[in-house]
Model the fold of this input.
Amino acid sequence: MTVYLRSLETAVPPTILVQPEARAVFAAQPGLTRLGSRLVSTCFDSAAIDTRHTAVRELTTDSRAQDPQFFDPATGLLLSPSTKVRNDIFATEATKLFIEAAQKALDTCPGIDVPDVTHLITVSCTGFFNPGPDYKIVRALGLNPAVQRYHLGFMGCYAAFPALRAAKSFCEADPEAVVLVVCAELCSLHVRTSNDPDTIMGSALFADGAAAAIVTARDIPGEPALLRLDHFETVLTPVGEESMAWNIGDEGFEMVLGNYVPHIIDDHIIDALEPLLSRDSSLHGLPYRDIQHWAIHPGGRSILDKVQTRLDLSDEQLVPARETLRTFGNMSSATVLFVIKHILDLPAAEDGQDSTGGGAGAERICSMAFGPGLTVETALFTRLQAPRGATAPRQEQSSTDTETPGAGAGAGAVRAQPVPVRT
Done:
């Protein structure tokens, strides 16, 4: 049975963090050693990020927190709120992104109405609360209270693929199923000042965002789907379990992102792709660059560099991943869906030819994401059409611009000057 992705939408918080200004704040912290100060400059400058979005709103141009929790603008000091404080903010701010992205996915899915949704899968690794985001979406969007709800929690950057794979399985089991998949992450809630290289790297890379998709096997006459979901595979690298991890500490969640991760990916990316590509005889043994599109999770610039070199991909094939990193940073599980949306927003191939088994006018997409373990999730899609009214990819602006009383902020947005808010 063929299963399709029929809509894919994204959402981000309104506050934009400018990378050089964030670097200046982190570099000015009094507890840094000389090595720590050098690492801040190196990590922020080499991240290939211009801007990121954050749910942190203590320093927007129209707001000043009377009792700052993450950053004291009077002293320039980064503060260390407890995990509870951070998680309380997650419950408020992540809910907004979950609902916004889900609503946009439904609004842009012709032929699918709210009562049609039979399954809901939510994904996040940056906070916990219950009743959770799945419940909040059902209530806010007016979904059938009997909708089957599932939450994938604390899996990390690769979790969008297990969610899409589960959605595909639901649709294969029930041809009338309509699955709403929503990923939302507030990574910036957990960044902090430190001399630890992993913590500094996380502060330089991570950001906030959400993405949502509608998946179904239903035939909707006159409404072509965006993607065909072809195959998914999971591979664990033989080394690297200690190099990438995500733990809960007393002052937020603690990222372990060893500088050897890009080398592990470099050594094992070929083997990780083998199970996926062997599923399709038209791709198995084909030069990697002959697959038209590559949707790679931009875990960092060095990871993208290693993947491009090892697979001999062109600069053009890396544009969706690099542009997502440059304008949005690493938003954990939601990020690879931003990359796929970038590809969907590109103009269709002019010649309409397909040499990789997708059919006339179709374009193949090979996608991968990396996370704790090291876990490598891979997926193969077929792009069927560009979204209606598609334009060149641009930076998102969330519709949730209003300030929430009592809403906190995350260290990822701290800066010496007010954060510019794009309108």
